[in-house]
Amino acid sequence: MHVVVAGGHGRVALAVSRLLTARGRRVSGLIRRPEQAADVRAAGAVPVLLDLATATVEQFAGLLTGADAVLYAAGAGLGETPDRASPVDRDSALALADAAQLVGVRRYVMLSSMGADPHSHYPKDPLVERYLRAKGEADENLLSRPSLDCTVLRPAWFRDGPGTGLVRLAAATGMGEVDRADTAAVLVALLNAPATAGRTLELVSGDTPVDEAVAALADPLDP
């Protein structure tokens, strides 16, 4: 299995790479800066230098040829373009999806954010509102594509703990927190669970082992 990870230097993405490569999977981590390459290699992945904000569909397609799945784990957060939705939080996720469709890669897992919504209203902080809207617009677009088996994961506020291996994963969980390590484990499980395609899932710490939580949602009888 070959997985292409966009935002390959992020803390969750690096944890995903370590988990996947430990299982014998091949991982390509897309990074923006050359100095990030050593960390990506240390996680077992192959670093690929590419600026997501400016990359074309054709460039993405060249990198996806022969891949089995895509994990979009990039995010500019609240920073670089205060006057418009970030190209990293929305536009490049959709361009990467265009490329996946072009070369026939069906499995696409989107690491989004709890509260993402195209109609998000957050008057206390316009930057947060733009960020959540951009993520929500990307999520909605990705899930509307019949030629993609896309699952959207919206984790709660991140913690830097070692992970408990126990989570709550559902269409709606309520607010909470979750370790980055547990988020990475859920993403790895979702990459191998295409039956979860078409779903938007929220994630918080809980009391269900990761594999069981994902397997329950992959069951077609699960509501």
Automatic annotation (TrEMBL):
Signal peptide, first to last residue:
none
Report the Gene3D superfamilies cross-referenced here: NAD(P)-binding Rossmann-like Domain (3.40.50.720)
Top-level lineage group:
Bacteria
Which Pfam family, just one, is annotated for this protein? NAD_binding_10
Spell out the InterPro entries in the cross-references.
NAD(P)-bd_dom, NAD(P)-bd_dom_sf
Q: Where is the NAD(P)-binding domain?
A: 7-194
How is this protein named in the record? NAD-dependent dehydratase
Q: What is the lineage of its organism?
A: Bacteria, Bacillati, Actinomycetota, Actinomycetes, Kitasatosporales
